[in-house]
User: Which sequence fits this backbone?
């Protein structure tokens, strides 16, 4: 590979929001215009010394950053030679990495003089993180959510309401995430002078993949220096789970210029059959959805295919455009882990280290365990533990009572 990674983060995306052939803005004119304003505000405001120092203070005092890097001694001893380290995003306020970009988006809204944050949510994790940010900044918050998901995710709906958000039920179509996205876009177009649309990952039209990556890059910046301080070295491999790809871009961004192997882990669900998994980079093709070009899983009509994963945070039929690019140029390897492998890793980390991981994050850990078993196994593996597993307890109790 002859790709020149120097200044990568400055060069990508380009000014139109492209990572190679992926990314861009594929939206009706009025929406595109609104996002152009956000892009311009982001470029000036978010790079001012005042914004940066305020965000730094919030991360420290409200979110509890930096989160630690932890050496899994018990697990590593059992594995033999490979040493597993975790970046503990489960200890970030609200229990996952999502708050990192929600606080950034909230602060930007505040500086832009906006009154309201608008977003959609599927399982409700993004909605809760954004409602938290809105409460902190004293902004209104409107979360669009499919009626089906509202029924399934009652505790998260209650959390959002407790935090002061308005939850808007979406009652058309399949009443899930896809319709919620459309509904949130509609609400935003109607009110873009007063509100900002806050996406939940490094997906969507430009500038979101850029903004969310930048706000999440604190994960990688912290982890890289913490790891060097602990061990004296860089890790040999860095591993993260891929839903839309934000926790992964957060940690990957600090290591792209380093001699470090990087792995993104997709959910292989129940099988390789379309509909049984959400491994979009592994099995998908080029396409446009939700306003951006990337690699996606399509059904026979070319529409986003139904997807599945035991980890609801990973079941999205595409991934951020930057991941499609990093795959094409060969910088990041994308692998897939099944439900069963992720669940095994979930139990293993809980039992051996006293850390109950999110099932999403368990995908990354499961792949790290696989790497450790290879003949030419890496010495140091750094896993992004994107979130905690408390939210998954009901599911695990119901489905694996004999393993507890
Ligand atoms: C939402 C979520 C993910 C997946 O989102 P990305 O944008 O791919 O990071 C992963 N882990 C946890 C704990 C989540 O809540």
Assistant:
């Amino acid at each position: 590979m002859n790709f020149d990674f120097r200044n990568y983060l400055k060069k990508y995306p380009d000014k139109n929001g492209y990572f190679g052939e992926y990314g861009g803005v594929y939206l009706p004119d009025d929406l595109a215009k609104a996002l152009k304003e956000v892009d311009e505000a982001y470029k000036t405001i978010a790079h001012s010394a005042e914004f940066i120092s305020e965000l730094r203070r919030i991360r420290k005092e409200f979110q509890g950053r930096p989160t630690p890097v932890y050496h899994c001694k018990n697990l590593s001893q059992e594995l033999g030679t490979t040493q597993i380290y975790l970046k503990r995003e489960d200890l970030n306020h609200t229990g996952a990495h999502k708050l990192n970009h929600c606080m950034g988006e909230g602060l930007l809204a505040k500086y832009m003089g906006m009154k309201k944050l608008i977003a959609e949510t599927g399982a409700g994790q993004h909605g809760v993180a954004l409602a938290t940010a809105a409460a902190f900044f004293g902004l209104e918050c409107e979360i669009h959510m499919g009626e089906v998901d509202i029924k399934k995710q009652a505790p998260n709906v209650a959390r959002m309401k407790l935090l002061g958000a308005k939850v808007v039920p979406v009652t058309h179509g399949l009443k899930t995430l896809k319709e919620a996205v459309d509904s949130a876009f509609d609400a935003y177009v109607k009110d873009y002078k007063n509100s900002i649309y806050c996406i939940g990952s490094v997906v969507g039209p430009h500038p979101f993949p850029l903004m969310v990556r930048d706000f999440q890059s604190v994960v990688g910046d912290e982890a890289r220096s913490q790891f060097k301080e602990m061990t004296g070295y860089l890790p040999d491999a860095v591993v993260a789970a891929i839903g839309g790809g934000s926790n992964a871009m957060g940690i990957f961004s600090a290591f792209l210029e380093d001699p470090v192997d990087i792995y993104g882990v997709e959910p292989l669900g129940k099988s390789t059959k379309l509909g049984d998994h959400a491994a979009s980079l592994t099995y998908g093709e080029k396409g446009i959805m939700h306003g951006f070009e990337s690699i996606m899983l399509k059904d026979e009509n070319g529409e986003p295919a139904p997807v599945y994963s035991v980890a609801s945070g990973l079941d999205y039929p595409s991934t951020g455009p930057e991941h499609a690019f990093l795959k094409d140029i060969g910088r990041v390897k994308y692998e897939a882990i099944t439900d069963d492998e992720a669940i095994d890793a979930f139990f293993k980390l809980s039992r051996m280290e006293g850390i109950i991981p999110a099932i999403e994050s368990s995908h990354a850990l499961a792949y790290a365990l696989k790497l450790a078993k290879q003949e030419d196994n890496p010495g140091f593996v750094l896993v992004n533990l994107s979130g905690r597993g408390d939210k998954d307890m009901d599911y695990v109790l119901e489905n694996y009572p004999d393993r507890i």
Summary: The two ends are 47 Å apart (CA to CA).
